[in-house]
Amino acid sequence: MAAMTSTRQKLIDSARHFIQTRGYNGFSYADVAEQVQVRKASIHHHFPAKSDLARAVVDESRGHIVAQTATLAGGAFDPDEQLRMYTAYWERCIADASAPFCVAGMLAAELTTLPDDLATDVRAHFRDLSHWLEIVLTKGAHMGRFAFEGSARQEAEAFMALVYGAMLAARAHGDPSVFAGIVNVGLRKLAPVAA
Fold it and tell me: Which part of the chain is the Tetracyclin repressor-like C-terminal domain (predicted)?
């Protein structure tokens, strides 16, 4: 028998959906209450402020990145496979509209209007993601799989910008395949040039 999803988790999942599709400023507790079929008071019980709910969404995403980083630190991994898994995840999510845009990406676009505690968490998400990418790219370079001119940190930031830019382009064109096309160009640029 499958475990029932807690009300708290349903609220987080609902907020994630609204942030991904509307942004932080585009939804209210009334929207979440309607989707989850609870009273607004129930949401306030779990998350006194809207920023608390959004922070729970960001923290959940950050938790996945931190866990993945710890896994990489613990042993051998294929850097090509790691990058392809990361980009393939977003390709699937954009194609089936299950997660048409990264939560942190949507929130970063609204950063100047966010409460300070939420903005701090969004910045931390990007630091964590950049750190993960830096580890993957560094190992790939050491193995001769990737070649780049700048530092691994700069390349991690550039690859992250490429992925988020590809998400924007896919959304702007209304065509999920645009994401894969852009990302594949970025992955090819990492490959060392044959002598």
Answer: 81-180
Exposed / middle / buried, residue 130 (Cβ in 10 Å: 0-12, 13-18, 19+): middle
Encoded tokens for 11: 């609220």
DSSP-based three-state secondary structure for 92: helix
Residue 15 belongs to a domain: no
Write the pLDDT tens digit of every residue in 19-70: 999 999 999 999 999 999 999 999 999 999 999 999 999 999 999 999 988 8
Helical segments of the chain, H only? 7-22, 29-36, 40-46, 50-73, 79-95, 103-109, 116-142, 152-173, 177-190
Q: What is the CATH number of the domain that holds 170?
A: 1.10.357.10
Residue 97 forms part of a structural domain = yes
For residues 171 and 167, what is the distance between their CA atoms, to the nearest angstrom?
Answer: 6
What's the pLDDT at 3? 53
Dihedral sign for Cα atoms in the order 171, 176, 178, 180: positive
